[in-house]
Amino acid sequence: MSHSTTPSPRRFTAGSPLTGRITVPGDKSISHRSLMFGALAAGRTTARGLLEGEDVMATAAAVRAMGAGVERRDDGTWLIDGVGVGGLLQPQTALDMGNSGTSTRLLMGLVASHGITATFTGDASLSKRPMGRVIEPLSLMGADFTASPDANGSQTLPLTMRGAHPALPISYRLPVASAQVKSAILLAGLNAPGITTVVEPVATRDHTERMLTGFGADLWVEVENGERAIRIRGEAELEPQDIVVPGDPSSAAFFVAAALLVPGSDLVVANVGLNPTRAALFDVLRAMGGQIEELDRREVGGEPVADLRVRHSALSGIELDPAVAPSMIDEFPILFVAASQASGTTVTTGLDELRVKESDRLTAMAEALTAAGARVEEREDGLVIEGTGGEPLRGTIGAPIVTHLDHRIAMSMAVAGLVSRAGVEIDDTSPIATSFPTFESLLVEAGACSAM
Ligand code: S3P
User: Fold this and answer.
1) Listed residue (266, 243, 249, 242) closest to 306, CA to CA
2) What domains, with CATH codes, occur in the chain?
3) What sign has the CA pseudo-torsion 130, 131, 137, 142?
4) Å from CA of 103 to ligand 1 middle
């Protein structure tokens, strides 16, 4: 499931304005969950608009290895034949998670309350990411782990876990704002007798809650001392669903930013999911002066969706409230690129979590933007960026940008290339296929670059 091991370098240069109408692929978080929840339902779930990126395909292969039927029809609809909660089978070989933290952590939750043993492996990026945050609560539920300690003592892949059956329902307060950890515990709770509770001090994306409710789970949310307490009744039966996956706001973000930055642009990005726990970037860009208009607001698959009309805009720097971070956690790399083109200074704080994503996104973006000619100061928990006021960046001359197997660094710096004099060379575009296989063809479709 890992993407090609041969690096695929490319230089992205300034071209024409972005115009017309493009549609971004399905939401990655919702696609993973469609496959996993479908795999646990009793009967056939269908999913339309599923993201066919490498991360989601890793989830598809894993649930298939644990007994679910997963098949793509010629019209693009995915059919998932579930085994029922409690029915997962022991996989016969290691589960290759590729680059995908979401696949790994959520599937660990599934395995935790089934009486099966599974081994998880991943690529060089995923093998550096901390798994202790899920191992700790899932151990409290009775699962047993053998992980690989890294140099700092963090528990990482490869790891082998033995699920517990029956598992113990727990009540757990999240020490980090993480939808993956929240979801892992709730998924384990699905097959534990009694009620499992996750308390989140800071709200994170709520797709698991929305979708499990749609699948018929008994899940409810109470606010206690200003914190969300999410409870799920275990030994649940899930009913199969017909799912329509909305477009991914995290993928739309690159095109929204590109259209704001490239002079003359007027682009419609269609079918963008605007769940409030995901869409803060668009509000932040508006507060910076970005013209982003919502057209035809509607509901798709139980999520708010709109088409976004985006016009080139002069942006101003912003001092960002760290409270918005969880609702745009994957969008900071592209926000940093937008800030590099704004007038004035952008200050971000409270972003420690960015250091444990597919790469250390604070260091990776500080180095990448600096190499492209931007003025960036890296601090412990954020970046401070002096914008050019709309003047193009110098671009890279000599060494290409190092993307560290991180799709979002690659796509963000590709957008930086569109607003640079010399262009920006990326060392490897192949990780883009983990989340957004059509990224480069949509750049061509919008007129921003010519085909390779
Ligand atoms: C995700 C949660 C976030 C996000 C990731 C997808 C999810 O991770 O960065 O891309 O689908 O639950 P964290 O839970 O680590 O913040």
Assistant:
1) 249
2) 10-26+246-446 (3.65.10.10), 28-232 (3.65.10.10)
3) negative
4) 10
Cα 288 from Cα 49, distance rounded (Å): 32
> What residue's CA is closest to ligand 1, atom 4?
330
Out of 27, 330, 406, 428, the active site residue is 330
- In sequence order, the 6+-apart residues with CB closer than 8 A to the CB of 275 are 205, 206, 207, 249, 303, 304
- Reduced to 3 states (helix: H, G, I; strand: E, B; else coil), residue 276 is coil
pLDDT tens digit string along 53-75? 999 999 999 999 999 999 999 99
Look-up of token digits 């029915």: 87
For the chain, residues with pLDDT lower than 50 are 1
Distance (Å, whole) CA 402 – CA 412: 12
330 is catalytic: yes
- Kindly report the protein residue whose alpha carbon is nearest to atom 11 of ligand 1: 29
pTM value?
0.98
Pocket of ligand 1 (CB under 6 A): 29, 102, 178-180, 183, 205, 329-330, 353
Distances in Å between the alpha carbon of 222 and those of 58, 212, 213, 231? 34, 16, 15, 8
Q: Rg for the chain (alpha carbons), in Å? A: 21
Asked if 281 and 339 count as a contact pair (C-beta separation under 8 A), the reply is no
